[in-house]
Specification:
Elements lengths: L5 H21 L6 H26 L1 H31 L4 H32 L3 H17 L11 H9 L12 E4 L2 E4 L1 H25 L5 H13 L1 H8 L9 H17 L8 H54 L1
Length: 330
C-alpha cells in the first residue's frame, strides 16, 4: 500500500465535487443524443486527464495502474447500463425523470463504493490471504456473468417489500419527487423505489468491480479515483447506450473473461508476477475483441435481414414472370 498526502485527497475531492456541481447545473433534464455523446466524451476526457496527472505525479507504474483500474470500472459500468434500462422499464419511469434518478444514483454509488474500497484496503492490510479470497470471488463472478449476469425482478422483489415495511409506496408518480404525501402520510413514489433498486444493483456490481480493481493495484487513492471517474460519466453514457445495448452481444462474455483473467492473476500473484502494462494490454484487447465481435455479428444479421427482404420482394415478380410465360405459350 502506498501513502497519499492529505492535499492530494483534498484536491481530488474538490475536483470530483466541482465536476458533479457543473454536471448538475449544466445538464438538467433529459439530454438529446448529441449532447449526451458530448457530455460522455467530456467525462471520459476528464478521467484521461486525471490519469495523465497521475503519470506526471507518481510515475508510469501508477499511471498504468490507474488506467487499468479505470478501464475495468468503465467496462463494467457499461454492463450496469443494461440493467438500469431494465429497471426503468420495470418501474415505468418516464424518460423525463430518468436523469434525476441517475444523478442521485451516482451520488449514492460514490459514497457506497468509497466505503467498499476502504473496507477492502483494511482487509488486504490485515489478512495476507485476502488476495486469494478476492481472486476466487472474481472467478465466481465471471462464471455468473457468463451465465447471464445480474437478473432483476424489482416489481415483486426485495426492494419494494423492504420499502413498504418502512413507508407506504404510491402507484402513481408525483412529478420528479421521490417522496410525496397521501392522506396526510409521507409516502414513497415509484421514483424512490427505482432509485433504491438502482443503488442495490450497483452494490452488487461494485462487489465484482472493486475486487477487480484491487487486482491491478492496492493503492486506495488510485482505486477510489478510478472508480469515481468511471462512475461520474454513467448518467450521460446511459442516454448514449441504453437504446443500443442489444447490439453488444458479446460484451457480457468479454467482461466475464476479463474478470476471470484478473481473478487468476490475483490467485497466482505470489507465483507469477504479471506487470501492470501487460494487464492493461490484456484488458484493452479483451474489451476490443468483445466489441468487434458484437459489431461483426450485428452487421451479419443486418446483411442477412437485407438479403431476406430482397428475396421476398423478388419472389412475387418472379412468379408473375412465370405466369406471363405460361400464358404466352398457351
Amino acid at each position: 500500500m502506498t501513502g497519499t498526502p492529505g492535499w492530494a485527497w483534498l484536491a481530488a475531492g474538490c475536483v470530483i465535487a466541482g465536476l458533479l456541481a457543473v454536471d448538475l447545473l449544466v445538464n438538467r433534464g433529459q439530454p438529446g443524443m448529441r449532447r449526451a455523446v458530448l457530455v460522455s466524451a467530456a467525462w471520459v476526457g476528464a478521467g484521461v486527464v486525471f490519469g495523465i496527472i497521475i503519470f506526471w505525479w507518481q510515475g508510469g507504474e501508477a499511471g498504468q495502474e490507474y488506467f487499468a483500474a479505470y478501464l475495468i470500472e468503465k467496462a463494467l459500468s457499461v454492463d450496469n447500463i443494461f440493467v438500469f434500462a431494465l429497471l426503468f422499464q420495470a418501474f415505468a419511469v418516464p424518460a423525463a425523470y430518468q436523469h434525476r434518478v441517475l444523478f442521485a444514483g451516482v451520488l449514492g454509488a460514490l459514497a457506497l463504493r468509497a466505503c467498499f474500497i476502504a473496507a477492502g484496503v483494511a482487509l488486504l492490510e490485515q489478512l495476507s490471504w485476502a488476495f486469494y479470497l478476492f481472486g476466487a470471488f472474481l472467478l465466481v463472478a465471471a462464471l455468473r456473468m457468463a451465465r447471464g449476469g445480474v437478473r432483476v425482478d424489482p416489481r415483486h422483489g426485495l426492494v419494494l417489500r423492504g420499502l413498504r415495511k418502512v413507508m407506504p409506496v404510491t402507484e402513481e408518480f408525483d412529478g420528479p419527487r421521490f417522496l410525496t404525501r397521501r392522506d396526510g402520510r409521507l409516502s414513497a413514489t415509484p421514483l424512490l423505489a427505482a432509485l433504491i433498486a438502482i443503488e442495490t444493483t450497483d452494490v452488487i456490481f461494485a462487489a465484482d468491480s472493486i475486487p477487480a480493481a484491487f487486482g491491478v493495484t492496492t493503492d486506495m487513492f488510485i482505486v477510489l479515483t478510478s472508480n469515481a471517474f468511471a462512475v461520474l460519466g454513467l448518467r450521460a453514457l446511459y442516454f448514449v447506450l441504453a437504446g443500443a445495448m442489444e447490439r453488444f452481444t458479446y460484451l457480457t462474455q468479454g467482461l466475464a473473461v476479463m474478470l476471470a483473467f484478473i481473478g487468476v492473476k490475483m490467485i497466482l500473484a505470489q507465483v507469477v508476477h504479471i506487470p501492470t502494462v501487460v494487464s492493461l494490454g490484456v484488458i484493452i484487447v479483451i474489451i476490443a475483441v468483445a466489441v468487434l465481435l458484437s459489431v461483426g455479428k450485428q452487421r451479419r444479421q443486418a446483411a442477412a435481414a437485407a438479403a431476406t427482404a430482397s428475396a421476398e420482394m423478388a419472389a412475387p415478380s418472379t412468379t408473375a414472370s412465370a405466369s406471363e410465360m405460361r400464358r404466352s405459350h398457351a
